[in-house]
Specification:
The structure holds 2 protein chains of 2 kinds. Chain A is built from 13 helices and 10 strands. By secondary structure, chain A is an alpha+beta fold. In chain A, the strands form 3 sheets. A 4-stranded antiparallel beta sheet of chain A has the order 1-2-7-4. In chain A, strand 9 and strand 10 form a beta hairpin. In chain A, helix 5 packs across helix 8, helix 8 crosses helix 10 and helix 12 packs antiparallel against helix 13. Chain A starts with 16 loop residues before the first helix and ends in a 6-residue tail after the last helix. Helix content of chain B is 74%, strand content 0%. Chain B is built from 19 helices and no strands. The chains are: A alpha+beta, B mainly alpha.
Chain lengths: 432, 410
């Protein structure tokens, strides 16, 4: 008796037709999201790496073109008088060549073409020139000799009425085969690269920890019941909700060292300081402590305080939500057992909050590292506040070297990748 | 019984601290409102607070009636006037007399009330570690509330007040926030009127609203089906997707700016609102999808299965069953996305060159030059802040529930 084939037994493997339909439907629903994310996030990420290896400046983005200036040289006073029409053509780009330049124009009916440049053909009034390749910055004159007819003298026509037309294949600096390592060399060799990296790390760590600690503190305050709590909670959330440009500019005017700066005037009135402090313009102040003197970074600290001010509400919100989901039984039990408030906080609240604090730390750490607008609007990266992200802007748009900016952006992304790997290695139980 | 134990000494200490704190705050408030150069009398305030606390905390909690508190208040007033040489706010009482009187009485009342709240239910005979901690924590929390409130409100206060003043007044006395209501409404809001009539702020406002609302619509249109798929349908990669979708949110915008700038420049999409409407949803869809799928999971699947059994197609199930049930989540996601789009600065700043296309953030950045007076800048900031803040405060509970629902698990 043949043994039954057991390989067909047991639960069916693979996807059934229904499951396949469900899968296709799910993919269909996700397709638009996937496409948008692909085109606006993933593709630019790759494009950024591409640009970082290319010698591109901001000016190169404007595609090179042939600029032409048309002019009638000479007097046409009588029938048969000859003159030159001069076309002065120029490659607008100083860096890239333009291939296969083809040029056409229409000469007015009332002018007779006598001779043309050897690369041109005049078919009736139609002028066609095959000018070949234009080097970067190349300029040349194309002369067309014409004679006047009676019709022209009767009604002189402006030769500029018919615009010369160029067709050409401009070289696209973004897609050509030029690659270079100069951008990365420039970034890593820059004298301030390490100070920029240090500022970035200091800003990220201090900003994250500060926002978390302040958020935790504010959450403790908001967890007690009192009249006006809802109002205060709304107020405390407003730094996070308000547009960054509005609050940043308010801070800039508040901290202004010149006349009209509120905080400096306030501190002088209170007798805390003698003269105005340039909070956002002073790199460092020397502080002597126990005989040791060290440089305290002023502007960077102020920028960090702004970061804490703006993002403690987020931490407060999440910590508060977590605290209110802890059942009160535990606290009642602890109360009966005689635990003091501090002990209750240390041994009940804090352990319960560790999870959300870890998630918040992770998110805030990465977001703070990514932060650009705040520092840019407060100091523009001056006075030792230039972080990596501000440096991206500085290189790409202030120095107009897109390639170098993209190279810094690659560094930003690599550092971020390192953080993510470290985080996910050391905190496996935290899933963001 | 030891009447004057730890609790009493601590109460007196905190009384002194409250006295100093409120002396500073109330004096500065008077300074802002009147524009006179008041000087906080910190030491006098501390001594007065100490005396008031000594009076109040000497009595057991049950006996601290309104009368006793009034007595403590009088003690405070007396001491601060004596200790400051009849200048409780740093100026002779002859100047701005009525105002000084009101503010000093306010100072006394609020200090006594602070002390009362700090040591309510605690008095002589409660000398336990528990109570000492409660007392200290109450002071720390009260102090924290006051500090946080001032720190958060000060920039907004300055923003609003500066927008109502003019440059000369601001430069000559930066601490004078007194408002001259006598000048009439149109003079008071001159900066705002000029922004709308001369600086195209009407256009900016419309552009901002347009971009934000369109971003919300596009985001929801794409995120709802996506979130439904991730939450309900089974397909290979579902788990990976539901976990990794937020990773998109970790990508720094500044890294995307250069390639998008380059590509959009070449495609001619850079200086258009369409360009923004392409970029904004890409950054908001992942968050929206993540928040929505968390909510969708919480809706009982049985309801949808009943719909399916009754012959609805999947799309109709989403439309007729899931969406109505998820309305609160949709509202909070919409609000959050609106907030992101309204406040967005980087891309608007990089992409828009044409004044007619400016959003508010971009328009204010344009005002930020030395030629434009400060009150205009701050008025612009107020115009950008008010709509989003009002919307947010109105729907705050919604948003908070939606924001935290997705990520905070038991």
């Amino acid at each position: 008796m043949p043994t039954p084939d057991t390989s067909n037994q047991g639960p069916p493997k693979g996807l059934g037709p229904l499951a396949k339909r469900e899968m296709r439907f799910a993919y269909l629903l996700l397709l638009p999201t996937f496409l948008i994310v692909l085109s606006v996030v993933l593709f630019p990420l790759i494009a950024n790496v591409w640009i970082s290896f290319k010698p591109v400046t901001l000016g190169d983005l404007r595609a090179p073109a042939i600029l032409v200036n048309e002019r009638l040289m000479g007097d046409l006073a009588a029938v048969g008088d000859e003159a030159d029409i001069r076309y002065r053509a120029r490659n607008s780009s100083r860096k890239s060549a333009i291939a296969d330049v083809l040029f056409t124009d229409t000469i007015p009916q009332s002018l007779t073409v006598i001779s043309v440049n050897e690369r041109c053909v005049a078919g009736g009034q139609k002028l066609t020139c095959d000018l070949g390749d234009y080097e970067a910055g190349q300029r040349e004159d194309i002369i067309v000799r014409v004679a006047a007819t009676q019709a022209f003298l009767d009604a002189p026509e402006n030769i500029k009425v018919t615009k010369p037309v160029f067709t050409f294949a401009p070289e696209n600096i973004l897609t050509n085969g030029d690659f270079t390592l100069d951008n990365f060399r420039r970034v890593f060799n820059a004298s301030d690269f390490w100070s920029v990296l240090w500022a970035s790390m200091y800003y990220t760590i201090a900003g994250t920890v500060g926002a978390l600690v302040m958020g935790l503190f504010a959450a403790q305050l908001m967890n007690i019941t009192f009249g006006g709590r809802a109002f205060l909670r709304g107020l405390f959330l407003s730094p996070y909700v308000a547009p960054v440009i509005a609050v940043a500019l308010a801070w800039v005017l508040l901290l202004d060292p010149g006349p009209g700066g509120t905080l400096n005037a306030l501190l002088i009135q209170l007798g805390v300081i003698d003269g105005p402090i340039s909070f956002l313009g002073q790199r460092a102040v020397e502080i002597s402590f126990l005989g040791l003197s060290f440089d305290f970074p002023v502007a960077l600290t102020v920028v960090i305080i702004f970061e804490i001010w703006r993002y403690f509400p987020l931490a407060m919100l999440f910590i508060l939500a977590r605290m209110q989901s802890v059942s009160t039984d535990i606290y009642e039990a602890a109360e009966i057992d005689g635990a003091t408030p501090l002990q209750q906080f240390r041994f009940i609240s804090l352990p319960q909050l560790m999870g959300i604090m870890a998630v918040l730390f992770l998110l805030r750490f990465i977001w703070t590292f990514n932060k650009f607008d705040d520092i840019f609007l407060l100091t523009g990266g001056a006075a030792g506040t230039r972080t990596l992200t501000v440096n991206v802007y500085e290189q790409a748009f202030a120095v107009s070297n897109l390639g170098a900016g993209a190279a810094v952006a690659v560094v930003v992304f690599l550092v971020l990748l390192c953080f993510s790997i470290i985080f996910f290695k050391f905190s496996p139980e935290v899933d963001a | 019984m030891n009447r004057l134990g730890n609790i009493y000494y601590l109460s007196v200490l905190f009384g002194a601290l409250w006295g100093a704190i409120w002396a500073i705050i109330i004096t500065l408030l008077a300074l802002f409102i009147s524009g006179l150069s008041f000087q906080p009398q910190v030491t006098a305030g501390a001594i007065a607070g100490l005396v008031a606390a000594a009076v109040l905390a000497f009595h057991p909690p049950a006996k601290r009636s309104l009368g006793l508190r009034a007595l403590a208040g009088f003690a405070f007033l007396l001491v601060i006037v004596l200790a400051s040489g009849a200048q409780p706010m740093g100026l002779p009482l002859g100047r701005y007399s009525a105002g000084q009187l009101i503010f000093t009485v306010l100072m006394a009342a609020i200090t006594v009330q602070s002390i009362h709240l700090t040591c309510s239910n605690l008095g002589p005979g409660h000398e336990k570690r528990y109570n000492v901690e409660v007392l200290c924590l109450r002071f720390i929390k009260g102090f924290g509330l006051v500090t946080f409130t001032i720190a958060v409100a000060l920039p907004f206060f300055v923003m609003v007040m500066m927008s109502l003043k003019n440059q000369q007044l601001l430069l000559s006395n930066p601490l004078d926030f007194s408002i001259d209501f006598g000048q009439g409404v149109s003079a008071l809001f001159r900066s705002y009127i000029e922004l709308f009539t001369q600086y195209h702020f009407g256009t900016y406002l419309i552009n901002s609203a347009l971009v934000s609302v369109a971003t919300v619509a596009i985001t929801l249109f794409f995120a709802v089906p996506g979130a439904y798929a991730v939450a309900r349908l089974r397909f290979p990669g579902q788990n990976f997707l539901s976990r990794s979708i937020l990773l998109i949110y970790m990508v720094p915008m500044i890294v995307l700016v250069i390639p998008l700038y380059a590509i959009f420049s070449q495609l001619g999409m850079r200086n258009t609102l369409w360009g923004l409407l392409f970029v904004y949803p890409a950054t908001t869809i992942p968050v929206a999808l993540y928040m929505l799928q968390g909510y969708f999971r919480g809706i009982p699947a049985e309801l949808e299965e009943a719909g399916l059994m009754d012959g609805l197609t999947r799309l109709n199930v989403i439309r007729k069953i899931t969406l109505p049930l998820a309305l609160p989540a949709l509202a909070s996601v919409a609000l959050y996305v609106f907030m992101i789009a309204w406040n967005e600065f980087l891309f608007a700043f990089m992409f828009l060159d044409n004044v007619d296309l400016f959003t508010l953030s971009r328009g204010i950045a344009d005002l930020n030059s030395s030629e434009v007076p400060r009150q205009h800048l701050m008025a612009g900031a107020v115009i950008a802040t008010v709509p989003v803040l009002a919307l947010f405060l109105w729907f705050e509970r919604f948003l908070v529930a939606g924001l935290t629902a997705g990520s905070v698990k038991g």
